[in-house]
Amino acid sequence: MNKFKLLTVIIFGIIVFPLVISALASSSWYTPSDNPYDCSRCHEKIVEEFQSNTGAHNNFSCNDCHLKSDSSYALTPIFNLTWLKLEVDEPHAAISTKCVDCHSEAAKRLENNSEAHLRFYNESLNLPVSPSSTCIACHTHAKVNVSWQQTNYINFEINVSEGITNVKII
Amino acid sequence: MMSKNDKFYRFFVVYNHFLKVLAIILIILVLLSTSGCMESKKAITIKATIEENEVPLITSVESKIESIPALKYPKDIQPNFPGVYVLIISGNNRVNYWTSIPYTGSGIYEMTTGLRFDINEGETARVIVTVNDENGDRIAINTSTIII
């Protein structure tokens, strides 16, 4: 081996090889499955609802809010070995973010005792549903045509003069 | 006329090789520096103290900004059940990659999480640390804030 080749090997050994190793050692090679088809095999209605979503979350993917353990549900039953009753047939575990994780202002409003939804929210905590289910009860992803009106308070003055009552909203 | 045994000729050949090697090193360095591999990006290191007395309780959450080279930048990692998870919320969005470590009981848990979106400097983000059980259900939570 001549000197030039030797030097090239040394340079690759010193620079390129460590870089490749460090890249491999980093965790950047794991990509959670983000294929809605995987999820829709069991959660068809939710995926359908999400795909027809016209709201603020319409560009979200399943993986944005959920992280699930590996499962073979993406495969057709004949290939996913469920018929063998192996471990892969077990339900998968999944992480869910809660609505209030991102929408903390809603949680803050619920701290107010006069908040209109407080009773509904508190009652739902006794049910076997997640706090997010309470939000989803009204805030679905289906397009709804509702005009929301919220009035915090009204100040008014009442004057009685010569038998006539005058009400003035301030 | 120079012969191959001439000292000056031999020096010229070695010098020529040296220049070639130097050129290769420079090219590699330029390629690496322009490819973004050597750039550093902001990541967040979280230190959570968890005490377990029948149920886990996250007693404190500390977080700080760190600069990490792009090659070693933390991205999505495989889930852990049960695990300690961290969510960074900014602008009503989860802005960090999925980050967790296995939950093994009381102790101090340290995680470094990468940001999947660019966050404006000076923006405040919520740091949510949770403990999730073997089914993925949240069994403990604590939050803090950090200025990016």
Fold and architecture overview:
- The complex is a heterodimer of chains A (170) and B (148).
- With 170 residues, chain A is of the alpha+beta class.
- Helix content of chain A is 38%, strand content 11%.
- In chain A, the strands form two sheets. Chain A has a two-stranded antiparallel sheet.
- In chain A, a hairpin with a 2-residue loop joins strand 3 and strand 4 (164-169).
- Chain A is elongated, with a radius of gyration of 29 Å.
- The relative contact order of chain A is 0.08.
- Chain B has two domains: 1-35; 40-147, Immunoglobulin-like, CATH 2.60.40.
- Chain B is 20% helix and 47% strand.
- The model of chain B has no long low-confidence stretch (mean pLDDT 89).
- At the A-B interface, helix 1 and strand 2 of A face helix 1, strand 3, strand 4 and strand 7 of B.
If helices are DSSP runs of H or I spanning 4 or more residues, what is the number of helices of chain A? 8
SSE order of chain A, as H and E? HHHHEEHHHHEE
Structural class computed from helices and strand pairing of chain A: alpha+beta
Beta fraction of chain B: over 45%
- CATH level-3 fold name of the largest domain in chain B: Immunoglobulin-like
**How would you sum up the major sheet of chain A?**
2 strands, antiparallel
Query: Which architecture of the largest domain in chain B does the CATH hierarchy give at level 2?
Result: Sandwich
The description of the largest β-sheet of chain B is:
5 strands, antiparallel
Class from helix and strand fractions of chain B: alpha+beta
- The proportion of strand residues of chain A reads 5-15%
- Quaternary structure type: heterodimer
**Total count of strands of chain A:** 4
Tally of contiguous helical segments of chain B: 1
Average residue pLDDT of chain B = 89
Distance between the termini of chain B: 69 Å
Please tell me the overall pLDDT of chain A. 74
- Can you give the helix content of chain A as a percent range? 25-40%
